[in-house]
Design brief:
Layout: H1 2-10, E1 14-18, E2 27-32, E3 35-41, E4 51-56, E5 62-67, E6 92-100, E7 103-110, H2 111-123, E8 128-133, E9 145-150, E10 155-161, E11 167-173, E12 189-194, H3 229-264, H4 270-307, E13 312-318, E14 322-328, H5 336-345, E15 348-354, E16 357-363
Parallel strand pairs: 1-4, 4-8, 9-12
Antiparallel strand pairs: 1-2, 2-3, 5-7, 6-7, 9-10, 10-11, 13-14, 14-16, 15-16
Helix pairs in contact: 3-4
Length: about 375
């Protein structure tokens, strides 16, 4: 009990600073033991011993959960999002929320905005130690639940976790014409928070920074006579360690490359590997779509055969894109039911009848 009291007394407070958007003033809050003790606008006051965290506005952040090969470096993370971003990969900076097997959760923000906010903090002589997205301030919701943080009359922030524990973020405008968000949010048990800052925060002390801290360059000290021996020994150890580290990295890189080639084949660059992964993902999605279309067509065709007992199926073939049927019968068939069946699924159908034989060809790739 005494140790716990000592920890509470010695815990350093947090000074949270959040830039304004759309011409709004900056906001700050002093947080101690998970509660806001003071808050205000514009330049924050000097708080001795406080740790400073820059809170990125929720509407300026983009949250992604994307497939990722192992061994990616920080500067390579934007390459995972080239087909999802409106800006170029060189115009954004990415921070990692979590690494999962075969995937990463990333937060993106415009590099120019981040540089401007950090420059303002430097002008106020604030030593920024952590950088978090505004969504991270809320406690982690349990699966099937969500938080709705109405921070102003203009915007609400939603943080949710679906039944599979997949995290979702949403910055939702509160204009009169904006309806309640649908989709996954309609299935979550939502708790509301109102105010400039949450009443209860996530565990800030253990939450890592999204971006690396920029440290000022220190001036070199002049060494006295004979003081070069220790730096020389440290340099030799550093060179030895660097050689061992480079050897280990080379082995890991070869292992990572072999893992990627097992999935996508031989590639010459990371960009080519990402393109092949994307093509495989799109191909798998297209095959799943065609299989669902085929199942629906089979169901409709079975129903047609039951109502047209004079026709019998003599052959059926599916080559991955086209489903070809041959039927035997004696009645004249109207094409309208087949055309309606194809239009309902967005595919094309070709109907030919010669004597007592009817040929149907459904092209499931015609709309691709």
């Amino acid at each position: 009990m005494n140790l716990e009291r000592w920890r509470r007394r010695t815990a350093r407070p947090w000074l949270l600073v959040r830039p304004g958007t759309h011409g709004e003033a900056w906001q700050w809050a002093r947080v101690e033991q998970g509660r806001v003790r003071a808050s205000g606008f514009a330049m924050p006051p000097a708080i001795p011993g406080a740790r400073v965290a820059l809170v990125l506005p929720g509407e300026a952040c983009s949250h992604f959960q994307v497939p990722a090969p192992p061994g990616l470096k920080r500067h390579e993370w934007p390459l995972l999002l080239e087909d999802r971003l409106l800006q170029g990969a060189q115009d954004v900076t990415c921070g990692c929320l979590a690494r999962e097997p075969g995937a990463m959760r990333l937060v993106c923000v415009e590099q120019a905005l981040l540089d401007g906010w950090l420059a303002q903090c430097a002008e106020w002589q604030l030593d920024v130690q952590r950088c978090w997205a505004q969504f991270q301030l809320l406690p982690m919701p349990s699966p099937g639940s969500a938080w709705c943080w109405r921070q102003s009359e203009r915007l609400s922030l939603f943080v949710g976790s679906d039944s599979e524990a997949r995290q979702h973020w949403l910055a939702w405008p509160l204009e009169p014409q904006a309806a309640t968000p649908a989709g996954v949010w309609a299935d979550l048990d939502t708790q509301s928070v109102v105010g400039e800052w949450p009443e209860v925060f996530a565990a800030l002390d253990g939450m890592p920074s999204l971006f690396e801290r920029r440290r000022p360059i220190r001036q070199r000290r002049q060494l006295g006579p004979g003081a070069w021996r220790l730096p020389a020994a440290c340099l030799a150890l550093a060179v030895l360690w660097a050689g061992l580290w480079c050897n280990q990295q080379w082995r890991q890189q070869a292992m990572y490359r072999a893992q990627v080639e097992d999935v996508v084949g031989s590639v010459a660059s990371l960009r080519e590997a990402m393109q092949r992964l994307k093509q495989q993902r799109l191909g798998a999605q297209e095959r799943q779509l065609r299989l669902r279309q085929l199942e629906h067509l089979q169901s409709e065709f079975d129903g047609w055969l039951r109502t047209n007992v004079s026709w019998q199926l003599s052959a059926a073939e599916f080559d991955g894109q086209r489903w070809t049927l041959r039927l035997q019968g004696h009645e004249t068939i109207d094409e309208a039911p087949w055309q309606a069946m194809a239009r309902a699924l967005g595919v094309a159908v070709q109907v030919t009848q010669a004597g007592d034989q009817l040929n149907l060809t459904f092209d499931l790739g015609a709309a691709s």
